[in-house]
Design brief:
Blueprint: H1 10-13, H2 27-45, H3 53-67, H4 81-94, H5 98-106, H6 109-112, H7 117-124, H8 126-135, H9 148-160, H10 165-179, H11 186-206, H12 210-224, H13 226-238, H14 240-260, E1 265-271, H15 274-284, E2 295-301, H16 308-322, E3 324-325, E4 331-332, E5 345-350, E6 356-363, H17 364-372, H18 374-381, H19 389-401, H20 408-419, E7 423-427, E8 433-437, H21 442-449, H22 451-455, E9 457-462, E10 465-467, E11 479-483, H23 500-531, H24 538-547, H25 553-561, E12 574-576, E13 579-581, H26 588-601, E14 611-613, E15 623-624, E16 636-640, E17 646-650, H27 656-662, E18 667-668, E19 670-672, E20 680-689, H28 694-705, E21 709-718, E22 721-730, H29 733-744, E23 749-755
Parallel strand pairs: 2-6, 15-17
Antiparallel strand pairs: 1-2, 3-5, 4-5, 5-6, 7-8, 9-10, 9-11, 12-13, 14-19, 16-17, 16-18, 20-22, 20-23, 21-22
């Protein structure tokens, strides 16, 4: 559902488009710019340079310059500026050292130039060559149904478990690509932005790189939902002055208290990211003005390591003496740090003018880990003997990657839910703490304890109350698992778990059970083959599996065993020697046309004029996606499905991010053509005060004044508030925007939201 304010964006969106600046530097100016950027990099590295490092850096820089000398970016600038920029992000924003910087300078050389891994190993050693190999993208041709990005991501993770610097440099590479996305074509922008918000931003969060995660989310939103992004950015800009005054008023009494207590501290306010504000607006169904915590106050105290916790709680006590806290909004990551190393106290208090304000309390060490993530974590870990949460996390990833059976896209989805989600903390009956992703069930917990416990689980007690297997856990729950020797996993269990470990163990067990049943199918097939003079070979089994359109020979034998396949078609096969030959197919031409015929049936001839694809203005048969029901004027993309031809989705469709990030190669550039003959069905949800005559006013405006055709209308009133759902036919988004603005101007109407009709 789209919040009401979106309908006020159309007038504003034209004014703020910024033309892409044309690249104008000559050769001499380019050389000066490249040297200036490189010297800037060296300046940042200066504190970390050891004898011989400067020479190594020079060698890497010259190798990269030479390798990329003929290459240019889409913007027109020399390509070498990209690896230098990535290296600077690694040093300045992530806190990496010399070797990582060398890898960043060379990260595209093996893929894009004549330089080989052997050249890099010869010049810089095996360690740097290994990291560069991890950073080299996959260029081999993939299976048509497999996402290149998913495969690439899996390869990166394999390297990550050996050397996490791979992923940190990869994140720097992606961040610079996002910062320079303006020069790319719209379809590329959508694909890259979707990949970023789908995988890379959660990964940055998991690595503890909060500033990078936030910037990635904001930049992705800038391209995926440009109108909304500009609207919130403008609103933040307009309210900057009053926000600054409020922050100063809020901070003043706290400063006095902290000074009096003789703390060495920093205190400042900072606005929340555009992306997080938008999420709050969507989640709570409120306008920008109604989002209460547009900014957070951060207090950073300089404390010795042994007094950190004590000092943070002292500061908390001073804040809550001054302002009333919201008890349910206290987040204690001092006692239980996040698995990415993040430590802090967060509280939300009632500030002046009745506004809620979030306050974050950290020490200097905690702040560095929050800003620099993994790199800072290593710095402070030196000499520590305990296994860190990061190390445990890497171990879990290794286990997940150890399963080579899984499809890349399944793996990517499992990885997101298991390893990139926010975490909850739960307890065993003996008080041992366990970390699980948000959304984890009692069954996930059982598999986390031990595979044998998970496989025999019949239920659980959460906080001493009996719950089913699929019960969603919350932070602080204490769980006792109930098992039975007779229990075994079934197919439905896969819908009850989110962790990669649980899913894989269930799949392994189901496969084993399937194999046992398939043995009966093997015996039946052998007898049938002997009857037609055929032989029981692997080749013949695969031939039959292909004929019955099954994924594997195991599926074939299983379906034979449970009598889903009766093999009556087998008599049409011919056996020659040890080979089995299927009957010749009939009407091949029709079969080939099927994919696009399906969509053609659903289209009127004039409908084909509505959408233009690609640069050549081709008009192709298509269907409108049911998940988002786009209408002319919406920002859209075309997506080639495997069985239903071409489908048109809104760029802010609930499924868009997943489709664009996993199947970028199937996206078709799309724009609307002008056609006022065709109407599109869309829905509006209207909320307001249940006043006499309000329904008449609404219907009169829609049908009488604006002449829209109403398809359906339902009204419900309760406790003085009415909620109406109206389905109407409109020609395009601009008509819909005008209608929404007109409805909002009626007395007593509070909100108008667009929703996607069934």
């Amino acid at each position: 559902m789209i919040s009401v304010f979106l309908f006020k964006l159309n007038s504003y969106h034209m004014e703020i488009t910024v033309p892409i600046q044309k690249y104008t530097l000559n050769e001499e100016e380019e050389k000066k710019l490249i040297l200036r950027q490189y010297r800037g990099l060296l300046r940042e590295l200066k504190p970390k340079l050891k004898p011989g490092d400067k020479e190594l850096m020079r060698t890497a820089f010259e190798m990269s310059v030479e390798a990329h000398k003929t290459m240019r970016r889409k913007s027109g600038e020399p390509y070498i500026l990209h690896p230098i920029a990535v290296a600077r992000i690694c040093v300045e924003e992530i806190g990496l050292g010399i070797r990582s910087t060398i890898c960043a300078l060379l990260h595209d050389t093996v893929e894009d130039t004549d330089i080989t891994l052997e050249d890099i190993q010869r010049e810089f050693g095996a360690e740097i060559a290994k990291i560069v190999d991890g950073l080299t993208k996959i260029s081999s041709v993939m299976d048509a149904n497999t996402s290149l990005q998913a495969e690439n991501f899996k390869k990166i993770l394999l390297t990550l478990t050996d050397d996490p610097r791979v992923i940190l440099i990869k994140l720097a590479d992606r961040l610079h690509n996002m910062r320079t996305l303006d020069s790319m074509k719209r379809d590329k922008q959508l694909k890259i932005a979707s990949e970023t918000v789908y995988v890379y931003s959660p990964l940055a969060h998991r690595m503890g790189l909060y500033a990078i995660k936030t910037e990635m989310e904001d930049l992705s939103m800038k391209y995926i939902e440009p109108d909304t992004y500009r609207y919130i950015a403008q609103k933040l800009n307009d309210t900057k002055k009053e926000r600054s005054k409020y922050i100063n008023d809020f901070i003043k009494p706290l400063k006095e208290k902290l000074d009096k207590a003789d703390f060495n501290f920093e205190i400042y306010g900072r606005p929340k990211s555009i992306h997080s504000i938008w999420n709050k607006m969507k989640k709570k169904g409120v306008s920008f003005e109604e989002v209460y915590d547009l900014f957070a106050i951060r207090i950073i105290v300089d404390s010795p390591h042994d007094k950190e916790k004590e000092d943070c709680w002292k500061v908390y006590s001073m804040i809550t003496d001054e302002y009333n806290p919201s008890p349910e909004r206290l987040r204690d990551w001092l006692s239980n740090p996040k698995s990415n190393g993040y430590e802090a106290l967060h509280t939300t208090v009632m500030g002046p003018q009745g506004k809620w304000v979030e306050v974050q309390i950290r020490t200097k060490r905690m702040n560095e880990i929050a800003e620099k993530g993994l790199a800072a974590h290593w710095k402070y870990k030196e000499g520590a003997t305990d296994e860190s949460r990061f190390d445990k996390w890497f171990q879990q990833i290794r286990e997940a990657l150890g399963n080579q059976d899984s499809n890349s896209l399944d793996f990517l989805q499992d990885f997101k839910t298991s390893f990139l989600a926010e975490e909850i903390y739960v307890y065993t009956p003996k008080g041992e703490i366990k970390m699980l992703p948000v959304g984890a069930s009692a069954l996930d917990f059982a598999f986390n304890v031990h595979t044998a416990v998970g496989s025999k689980c019949i239920g659980a007690k959460v906080n001493h109350k009996l719950v089913p297997l699929g019960h969603k856990l919350r932070s602080g729950d204490q769980i006792e698992i109930i098992t039975s020797a007779k229990q075994k996993p079934n197919q439905e269990w896969l819908n009850l778990v989110v962790t990669s470990k649980a899913k894989q163990k269930i799949k392994d067990t189901l496969k084993e059970e399937k194999r046992k049943v398939a043995d009966d199918g093997k015996y039946i097939l052998q007898k049938k083959l002997e009857a037609i003079g055929g032989m029981m070979t692997q080749n013949n089994i695969e031939e039959l599996a292909s004929y019955y359109k099954l994924n594997s020979s195991l599926d074939l034998l299983y379906d034979i065993a449970i009598k889903k396949i009766d093999l009556k078609e087998l008599k049409e096969f011919t056996a020659s020697g040890d080979r089995l030959f299927p009957p010749k197919p009939v009407k091949v031409e029709q079969e080939e046309k099927h994919e696009y015929d399906h969509s053609a049936k659903t289209l009127d001839k004039k409908d084909t004029e509505l959408i233009i694809f690609g640069e050549s203005s081709d008009k192709i048969m298509y269907t409108i996606a049911n998940c988002c029901k786009p209408i002319p004027g919406d920002d859209v993309f075309g997506f080639v499905t495997t069985g239903e031809g071409l489908k048109i989705h809104r760029t802010n469709c609930p499924n868009a991010t997943r489709l664009l990030s996993n199947y970028g190669h199937r996206v078709v550039k799309t724009k609307w053509a002008k056609n006022n003959e065709v109407s599109f069905l869309t829905g509006l949800k209207i909320i307001g005060l249940d006043d006499v005559g309000v329904i008449h006013k609404i219907t009169n405006l829609i049908s009488g004044e604006m002449k829209f055709n109403i398809s359906a209308m339902t009204i419900e009133a309760k406790d003085g508030i009415f909620e109406g759902n109206v389905k109407i036919f409109v020609h395009d988004k601009y008509e819909l925007d005008e209608l929404c603005n007109r409805l909002l101007s009626l007395h007593g109407i509070e909100r108008v939201d667009r929703y996607d009709t069934e």
